[in-house]
Amino acid sequence: MTQRRFEILFWQFAILVVILAVWQWGYDACKATLPKSLVPGILDPYFISKPTAIWSSFLKLACFADKAGTSACLSANDNNLWIATLVTLKNTWWGFLWGTLAGIAAGLILGRSEFLAKIFEPYVVALNSIPRIALVPLIILMFGLGDLSKIVTAAIVVFFVLFFNTFEGTRSVDRDQIAAARLLGASEMTVLRTVVVPSALAWVFASLTPAVSFALIGVIVGEFIGAERGLGKLIIEAEARANAAEMMVSIFVMMIVGIGLAYIVRRLQSHLLRWQPQFDQQQ
Amino acid sequence: MTSTVASSPASSAKALEPRTRIAVAGLSKTYGAASRQVTAVDNVSFEVRQGEFVALLGPSGCGKSTILNMVAGLLPKSAGSIRIDADDVEQGLVNRKVGYVFQRDTVFPWRTVEANIGYGLEIAGLPRQQRRDKVESAIETAGLTGFGRSFPRMLSGGMRQRVALMRTLIMEPEILLMDEPFGALDTHTKLEMHKTLLDIWERERQTVLFVTHDLGEALTLSSRIILLSARPGRLKDDFAVGFARPRDAVSLRETPEFARLYTHIWHSLGEEFRRTKAK
Ligand SMILES: Nc1ncnc2c1ncn2[C@@H]1O[C@H](COP(=O)(O)OP(=O)(O)OP(=O)(O)O)[C@@H](O)[C@H]1O
Ligand SMILES: [Mg+2]
């Protein structure tokens, strides 16, 4: 068991080293040894930069390598890496939160009422078939270049994911469990709170991890199309200067943000769903 | 139609019969739309008196659950009437005097054993401390000591059914409806559950309507057996089960009286099982 774990860790580390080495020296090595037509263009540092260049770009963007000193650099640039990350993170969080709450509420209501579900079905189908990204320019027109348009974009993306999952989860609640609760004296509201919500929660959480990545995507796309600050804005600026290293820095920060958000959601999930076998810590 | 085989001297104080708690008259149920109708229950009438433990016995698919669900108000009836005390039972109306234990496992998997058993008290708004005391003693009665904080998936099927039973009993229902509550358990666990249920019932004497297709179980527990025919369910027979109480779930089965009544009802029941198979 631990033997196996060690082997897995070893190979994971080995793969990382190989990737970094090829990334750093691969292109130069190929150019020195192979005929020109065989040199893989994809490895050209002009497109993918190099680990060392990315690292120094990171130090520069994060204001760790400025002659004027870190704090002077930070205050001189209102979209430095730190502010950009915080802005993107903040907008992702609020979009995720509002989209999740609205999606769960709508899913519960339509899931519990056959009547309302029938009425709204064509509208839900129609709205859902619009690619969300197509709405972004419109949303920016409506809500401006600031944070609000990013939050709205993320919330809309998240809303539909949560809505459909909550709806399905609500529909698949065990009817005998509902009957049992009623026979023990539960009112309609109590049934909703104590039976429908907890048993739909498994479905809700199944969609929460993808939803948080969708929220991040929504915010970044919003920042691509029109923004004052944020990681997406940093990428667009770097692209204008054809600076691959700076783009890579933003991409890595996004990766870390994505991992962090997914981790928080998963922790929450394993606490709230600890009654389910796959989340049992005692096993 | 009614034959009575009692193993102990028949009650002589007929005049002082306890009051009727459940009165079912001309009850029928037809499932499905006009073209594809299935008659599950056909013109069934019976009464259950205060403190009686009545077993509703019949082959699988004869409409036992259907009858019980109508009595509990979970299912609309097609014809006939059901009264509990003076009240007509209507679908959707919950009667606080009635407790129900399901054929399927309906324990809430997201609640611990304690929280499952205390569910009814919790939503009734009983203060935490009182609730805890009651739940505590229920857990002890059910032989679940030490499992209060466990989630249902950590329990065996028999333990889960004990939780379901105590979740209902803690509400102190005067009338208890049970739909093959031990149907999914192995023979040994079933006997254990019979012991538990007999202990509780012989102390509290609720009025019980207990659905089963297991003749041994019906004889062990009940004071009366109502036998249903194969589908559509009709009333076939009505037997008094007069074994002395308190009963021992295991040794009762070894007595000659048990064997005699078992054989007697078996022939009647056997006909119905054969009719079910022939379909
Ligand atoms: N919702 C339904 N729609 C149509 N037919 C049904 C429905 N529920 C039950 N039935 C039919 O009614 C008949 C009686 O069903 P019921 O569940 O009452 O049987 P049962 O006596 O409880 O059987 P078991 O011992 O297997 O639980 C069965 O033949 C079944 O096919
Ligand atoms: Mg049944």
Protein architecture, described:
The complex is a heterodimer of chains A (283) and B (279). Chain A has 283 residues and is mainly alpha-helical. Chain A folds into 2 domains: 3-48; 77-280, MetI-like (MetI-like fold, Orthogonal Bundle), CATH 1.10.3720.10. Chain A is 78% helix and 0% strand. Chain A contains 12 helices and no strands. Chain B folds into 2 domains: 19-97 and 174-278, P-loop containing nucleotide triphosphate hydrolases (Rossmann fold); 107-172, no CATH class. Chain B is built from 8 helices and 10 strands. In chain B, strands 6-7-8-3-9-10 form a 6-stranded mixed beta sheet, sandwiched between helices. The relative contact order of chain B is 0.19. Mean pLDDT of chain B is 87; it is low at 1-13. At the A-B interface, helix 9 and helix 10 of A face strand 6, helix 3 and helix 5 of B. The structure holds adenosine-5'-triphosphate and magnesium ion. Adenosine-5'-triphosphate is lined by residues 31-32, 38, 40, 58, 60-66, 103, 213, 231 of chain B.
